[in-house]
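Sequence in, structure out. Go.
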Amino acid sequence: MLSCIGDGKHKEWAWKMTKAKAKEADLRCHECGEVVVFKEYRDRKSHFAHKPGSRCSYGNGESLEHLDSKIEIYQNFLSLLSEQDEKDFVIEMEYKDSNSSRNGKRADIYMKRSGKKGLVIEIQKSHIELETINDRIKYWNGLGCVVWWIIPATIKHIIGSEFHLHDPRMIHLPSWQQHLSLMMRNRHQDKNKRFNKLWFYDVKALKYLQVWLERQGSFYRIVDRHLFKHDINGVNQIINSIISKDEGKFLREGHIITTSNFKYGKHKDKVIPRNLEVLS
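Output:
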């Protein structure tokens, strides 16, 4: 996990923590309240972790690819904010609704503009129970949020080895990805027909891949696919397709607050130091 509760008061971020500070602080898990330890690394992401024997599942088994994707997507959205967005835009990583109980869900990334629907990004790399997927969607929908599921992957891998050998447009999906594709089923604008859909994110390429799928036996046929860059136009196209075009542009165009000139406003403390980024 990239954050925890420090001294029972506020959220502590791993990239701001030091070993000296960690020794003096009472660091506890957001979910279970157990003491967590600070893991500092130079060649990978520093983070907090439960002590051996803990039964809490939060943060356990989180792969480096999942951490990288979460940081990249969060940081890239943050870097696209304009001065106008600064006034009424909320973006949080490892977010939990302040009014929810201990049983409330925690989102990898949460974003919302005042008066608009919220967007919850769930990054999923490994197997997840189908009931868990349904529970998370139901929970966030109940709070007025749309859930965008993203699978970290290398684009070359997606269009390579997982495809059926006899038909390069046929792909096999594990059960949880099949269920996710059904949950994100939508109408294809050009083909005027509803298809299953999956979203992938390539950490190294910094691109999103949207794949439209149609089930054929035990495989899925790729009907269409689109690549999106993580820029203002790309992000607004993606969000409009997930939430609604009626909501207007998710991010406003104008002067962009980048990580290099981010020196003011309510988001200034959220910028991740350069050595934790994979951005070039």
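Check: The radius of gyration is 19 Å. The longest strand covers residues 219-229.
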